[in-house]
Design brief:
By secondary structure, the protein is of the alpha/beta class. The protein has 6 helices and 7 strands; from the N terminus they run E-H-E-E-H-H-E-H-E-E-H-E-H. The strands form 2 sheets. It has a 5-stranded parallel sheet with strand order 2-1-3-4-5, covered by helices on one side. A two-stranded antiparallel ribbon has the order 6-7. Strand 1, helix 1 and strand 2 form a beta-alpha-beta unit. The structure holds flavin mononucleotide.
Length: 175
Amino acid sequence: MEKIILIYSSTDGHTREICLRLLKVLEAAGNEVALISVEEAPNYQLENFDKIIIGASIRYGRHSKGIYQLISSKLQALNNKPNAFFTVNLVARKPNKNQPETNPYLIRFLSQIAWQPKQLAVFAGKIDYQKYNVFDRGMIRMIMWMTKGPTHPKTSIDFTDWEQVNKFGKVICDM
Ligand SMILES: Cc1cc2nc3c(=O)[nH]c(=O)nc-3n(C[C@H](O)[C@H](O)[C@H](O)COP(=O)(O)O)c2cc1C
């Protein structure tokens, strides 16, 4: 049994949902898992865990500031443990942009941080227009229109490949 910490940065809850699925896979394999938000992370000693996993969504082209701060403040703990990072975004719904080597947000993110995660994953996110405020809904609909995605204001589509999430859970178990 290992102690694994899952840290998420999520605005509308989808990255947390993905973490909950990972938690299920990891617990089923006999691990003890702590699931916390990036805001709670400063209260935790990452050194006390055997593995550190961080997941974050993209909003207006970037991961949250909190994720950058977490990585720079906990760099040593991250580098000393088996670790993984995953990103969640809508660009990843496109088959040619859903790999660590092809997802533009992940490529840029890795060039901006000092940490080199040992395992990486890219998951397509969720659109739920009715959850967003007027400004965000308008912006995302415009981006979807430009990238040939769904624009109906009542659209709620989960683009995540949940089997891919299960497989990533197994990768974490094995690392
Ligand atoms: C206001 C807003 C801005 C977003 N900006 C982007 C973006 O720039 N690129 C992208 O691929 N996805 C973008 N997304 C899609 C999110 O990454 C996707 O909905 C994800 O599932 C959100 O995860 P979360 O609920 O954990 O925050 C945006 C979503 C919202 C609501």
